[in-house]
Design brief:
By secondary structure, the protein is mostly helical. It has helices at about 5-15, 45-55, 60-75, 85-90, 100-125, 130-155, 180-200, 220-235, 240-255, 280-285, 295-300, 305-310, 335-340, 345-350, 365-380, 390-405, 410-415, 450-465, 470-480, 510-515, 515-525; strands spanning about 80, 265-270, 290, 360-365. The longest helix is centred in the first third of the chain and has 25 residues, at about 130-155.
Length: about 550
């Protein structure tokens, strides 16, 4: 992004009284431009490209993590800031703030798509191809889809197939519609799985394991990851294109190498930090995130042993040593009023141990098993995946419990639980109080309606996705589950409906309007609605709220 864009960000964040240094590096570069260093021949920078791309599949720096919290984690009730930034007029109260989400856009383009673009370009230029270049090509495709589908899910139309291909004016870049970019995602996964499968069948092995922070060059695990991402994206289409959703889901399940159903195959970035992940730094060091009301009331109602692992009891003496969250869109006069509510548990999220990726999970067995439960509910099971919805639902919970070292005895007690989420009570402001809305228990009921069963499945998927708020936000928009509290404050000026739940889309980057004016016209045409938070993305049609 250009320097004037950078200046706007500096002024904006200073005005927000941020007490910590932010990383503006990504915003001062053109995410679509090619540097001389990156144009070096023969894939010379492949090591740096892979490291950067993998590390940025999950925003782990504190500033980008805070943007994740504002745009994703908050929308689905995971966390909420204890500060009323800008007089409570900021993204968490649905205020249409230009520029704030641009860091997430720039990070994805600078640090995921650009890096994988050069890996792929370099691999293609080396002839004859080798096992090494074929492997690099295929894995870069998987990383590209894993990172960029989050951008498409957040913004709708994005620059993807035309990346690094400027228009005739040499400064503008055209967008793909979200429908077209999903076709590109599936095609890229086809290419990657076909290539890696051929390498495995021929006895080929990866020669770049030391560059691979995720699977250390294990090609079979990369294939499972690609199939699991296909499963995730296939289900994303259930409301807009059910036929294609079924085709892609069954394609993922039919691929001989399988999907991620065991924690040993989880896709996470092994990126240790003595300071802890950005999630911890935002909550502990900046004191800018606390437990969300939905997470508090649902996990408390379920007597869920994961709540004390994720968060710490409140420290405010007027609240007591209980787990206490903040209502979405809360009316906060002063930070001191709410900073004593429950913060992140540093003992769990602060270490990122080598055997587990902490808050850096991309896709896990817990999520995939819950996806399989939905697949079974829809009658789409095939190949090796024809179990019941209940069996996969419970397997997903077990996988997540195992990930955190929770005992089998605790798991057995949990899955038999019939208690419901509790009402939300705010000791500081009774106007925030609200009755529980996600009224399903943990114990699975195979005799209940399809919607009831789906709500149970998506509630457990929501818990298992924490703190991957952007993915949980996508699943919530797709299904409406779990049911979450409506925002108390809505400062969207009527562009986001409180009854619609929350924001449905990100506004396009301010820098796009400033430096890619012709390109943004293609984006707005493809979007088919105004560039405001209440506009629905393609796979989340406002005209269809039916899950079956």
């Amino acid at each position: 992004m250009k320097n004037n864009f950078l200046l706007i960000f500096i002024i904006a964040f200073a005005a927000l009284q941020y007490g910590c240094t932010k990383d503006f590096k990504n915003l001062n570069t053109d995410p679509y431009a090619l540097t001389n260093e990156q144009l070096l021949p023969n894939n010379a920078n492949v090591s740096a490209y892979f490291t950067t791309a993998q590390q940025n599949l999950v925003e782990n720096g504190p500033w980008l993590t805070q943007l994740d919290n504002f745009y994703g984690d908050n929308f689905v009730g995971y966390v909420y800031p204890p500060s009323g930034f800008r007089g409570n007029q900021y993204p968490c109260t649905l205020f249409n703030q230009d520029g704030w989400q641009d860091g997430l856009w720039g990070n994805a383009y600078d640090n995921v798509l650009k890096q994988t673009y050069f890996i792929i370009k370099g691999a293609r230029e080396i002839t004859p191809a080798t096992d090494a270049t074929n492997t690099q090509f295929a894995i870069a495709k998987i990383i590209q889809v894993a990172g960029m589908h989050l951008v498409a899910d957040g913004w709708g139309p994005i620059i993807y197939s035309k990346y690094a291909i400027p228009e005739a004016d040499l400064v503008s870049y055209d967008y793909d519609s979200q429908q077209d970019v999903y076709k590109e995602f599936f095609a890229d996964l086809d290419t990657a799985v076909t290539g890696l499968s051929a390498l495995v069948a021929a006895g080929g092995t990866s020669t770049f394991g030391n560059l691979d922070m995720i699977y250390s060059g294990d090609l079979t695990k990369w294939i499972k990851a690609a199939n699991s991402i296909r499963l995730r994206l296939g289900l994303r289409l259930t409301r807009i294109d059910n036929a294609t959703a079924k085709v892609q889901v069954q394609k993922a399940l039919s691929e001989p190498h399988g999907i991620i159903t065991d924690n040993a195959d989880n896709m996470h970035v092994n990126f240790n930090s003595a300071l802890g992940g950005g999630f911890v730094q935002v909550s502990r060091d900046w004191t800018d995130e606390r437990l969300g009301a939905d997470f508090e009331t649902i996990l408390t109602g379920y007597n869920d042993p994961r709540l004390p692992l994720f968060f710490s009891p409140a420290t405010d003496p007027t609240v007591g040593a209980i787990f206490k969250g903040i209502r979405e869109g809360a009316d906060i006069a002063a930070k001191g009023d709410y900073v004593g509510y429950s913060a992140v548990n540093v003992g769990v999220f602060g270490q990122n141990p080598a055997g587990w990726g902490g808050d850096l999970n991309v896709i896990t067995a817990a999520e995939v098993n819950e996806a399989l439960a939905e697949v079974a509910l829809r009658g789409w099971g095939t190949g090796a995946y024809t179990g019941t919805a209940q069996s996969y639902y419970e397997a997903g919970i077990k996988a997540h419990f195992d990930m955190y070292g929770i005992s089998t005895a605790a798991y057995n007690t949990y899955i038999a639980g019939t208690s419901l989420p509790v009402n939300y009570v705010d000791p500081k402001k009774s106007a925030h109080n609200i009755a529980a809305v996600n009224l399903v228990p943990v114990k699975y009921d195979p005799t209940a309606s399809l919607e009831h069963q789906l709500q149970q499945i998506l509630t457990q998927k929501w818990i298992a996705l924490f703190p991957n708020g952007k993915e949980a936000w996508s699943e919530w928009r797709r299904t409406g589950y779990p049911k979450v509290f409506p925002n108390y404050l809505n400062y969207s000026g009527g562009t986001i409906s409180t009854t619609d739940g929350a924001r449905r889309i990100f506004k396009f980057a301010l820098g796009e309007y400033q430096t890619n004016a012709n390109g943004i016209k293609t984006a707005l045409t493809a979007l088919g609605g105004p560039d405001v938070g209440g506009t629905h993305v393609w796979w989340d049609p406002a005209s269809n709220t039916s899950n079956f």
